[in-house]
Inverse folding.
């Protein structure tokens, strides 16, 4: 992990390779862009000509834009990187009018740090108000800067000419580097980003290298190494335990299914949370085989499990007073003589019988078992996250996760996601959608028998609801789109796994620690 430190040295005098300052877009009268708070001393060293020079270099201050400038001795750092923050906000910022949002800061810090790849030490002097808003601004800047150094190691056998290494060290400029709250924010950011990086690494790993047994072993080793209690059920234990859904999907592969349970039980906790993550290490669709185009992205079908497992490890460093147990069903959805088929009736964990109509709806099969198992431990809240449906991507796109479940809990998830820059939006679970999944022969069909794709994100939620213990508040977070970024790097998103909704889960656990 890239080290992060705080400094209260004047930004103009910081001994670093590059100093990052913020640049607001011109506010309409054809004027030049405006340097953001934090850049004062650097601007002064340029005798008031910095904004003008940046404008001559083409800088406009639009979000994500990075303009670099050689300082030739005016300030200590040899390079200035001015990162666009958009117009000066009139409201809704970090604390009060004039301050940009934490998400703007998080993205800007990441864009600047990524564009400075090749540099050693980079300092950021971005705008942060005094008071409470300063802490959240600092958290966002630190998280963004560290996420901007993330890169998947990959599998290339030769070094790539011209490929610059990520920035080696990050310094964040603050008013008082000795301030306890500021230090805590920097430390928290380092823990959170290490967790996101671990989840991204798992997601980006080639699917022949990460199959249920090896994924389970890696997760178990990481969790046990962090001091957590871990239990792994192999295929024999799954059979003995009656985990019909996990077995139905998982037995089609030579790499047999697993179920990992991880427990974080701090002293003095009064609330208990269950976290469930979908761990399909590869989803071919099974006999309802997927088209070849883009199928490779189904290596990311374990993003939910990766995010939850990494969340658990982060908890050991953040130490919230909430008991959290993770339940991670892992399977590979393949085609073979032992694979499940349409028409099969599966007896799930807990005894409900499901008629399989589409082997590509495998996520809900393994999740249903996990949901019933989690319910037995009587948690106060249950959060489940999965790359469940293409319908989520159609309805909400690649940025916004779909939320289904208990309306109040969904609202808490939405609000937490909003605070950390992982937007999610509540969706209904209408009775007619559930009715459409009535089975002729079993308790429920896995999907609507007409194979009607209308509202099929909701079918996923309606199915899962059947397995939630009566009265237990639950939320299902469909991350099919937001879990994986197929485009070029942007903001703090690199190509590949994003780690969503890990930061939301940590925020939720903090929220539960504070408010019950
Ligand atoms: N893993 C997929 C969902 C998915 C699609 C994730 C696109 C990420 C990007 C899931 O297992 C699946 O195949 N869902 C089906 C459900 C259908 C058969 C009811 C789908 O979305 O088509
Ligand atoms: Mn599928
Ligand atoms: Zn899937």
């Amino acid at each position: 992990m890239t080290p992060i430190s705080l400094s209260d040295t004047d930004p103009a005098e910081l001994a670093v390779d590059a100093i990052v300052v913020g640049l607001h877009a011109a506010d309409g009268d054809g004027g030049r862009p405006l340097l953001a708070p934090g850049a004062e001393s650097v601007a002064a060293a340029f005798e008031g000509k910095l904004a003008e020079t940046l404008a001559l270099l083409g800088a406009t201050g639009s979000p994500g834009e990075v303009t670099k400038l050689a300082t030739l001795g005016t300030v200590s750092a040899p390079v200035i990187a001015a990162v666009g923050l958009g117009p000066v906000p009139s409201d809704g910022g970090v604390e009060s009018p004039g301050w940009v949002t934490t998400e703007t800061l998080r993205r800007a810090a990441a864009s600047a740090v990524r564009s400075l790849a090749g540099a050693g030490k980079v300092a950021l002097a971005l705008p942060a108000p005094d008071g409470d808003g300063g802490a959240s601004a600092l958290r966002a800047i630190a998280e963004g800067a560290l996420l901007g150094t993330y890169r998947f190691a990959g599998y290339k056998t030769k070094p790539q000419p011209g490929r610059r290494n990520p920035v080696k060290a990050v310094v964040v400029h603050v008013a008082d580097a000795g301030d306890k709250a500021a230090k805590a924010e920097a430390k928290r950011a380092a823990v959170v980003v290490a967790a996101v990086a671990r989840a991204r690494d798992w997601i980006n790993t080639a699917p022949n290298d990460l199959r249920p047994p090896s994924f389970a072993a890696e997760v178990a080793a990481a969790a046990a190494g962090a001091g957590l209690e871990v239990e792994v059920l192999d295929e024999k234990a799954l059979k003995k335990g009656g985990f019909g859904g996990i077995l139905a999907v998982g037995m089609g592969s030579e790499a047999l299914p697993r179920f990992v349970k991880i427990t974080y039980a701090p002293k003095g906790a009064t609330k208990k949370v269950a976290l469930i993550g979908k761990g399909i290490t590869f989803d071919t669709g099974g006999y309802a085989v997927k088209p070849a185009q883009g199928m490779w992205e189904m290596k990311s079908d374990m993003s939910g499990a990766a995010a939850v497992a990494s969340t658990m490890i982060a908890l050991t460093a953040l130490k919230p007073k909430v008991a959290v147990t993770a339940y991670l069903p892992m399977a590979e959805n393949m085609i073979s003589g032992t694979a499940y088929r349409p028409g099969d009736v599966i007896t799930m964990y807990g005894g409900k019988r499901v008629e399989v109509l589409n082997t590509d709806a495998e996520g809900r099969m393994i999740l249903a078992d996990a949901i019933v198992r989690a319910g037995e431990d009587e948690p106060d809240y249950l959060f489940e996250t999965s790359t469940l449906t293409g319908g989520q991507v159609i309805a909400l796109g690649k940025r916004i996760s779909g939320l289904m479940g208990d309306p109040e809990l969904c609202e808490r998830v939405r609000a937490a996601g909003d605070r950390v820059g992982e937007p999610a939006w509540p969706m209904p679970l209408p009775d007619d959608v559930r009715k459409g999944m009535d089975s002729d022969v079993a308790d429920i069909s896995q999907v609507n028998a007409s194979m009607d794709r209308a509202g099929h994100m909701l079918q996923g939620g309606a199915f899962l609801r059947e397995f939630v213990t009566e009265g237990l508040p639950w939320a299902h977070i469909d991350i099919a789109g937001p879990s994986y970024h197929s485009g070029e790097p942007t903001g703090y998103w690199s190509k590949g796994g994003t780690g969503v909704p890990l930061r939301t889960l940590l925020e939720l656990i903090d929220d539960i620690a504070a408010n019950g």
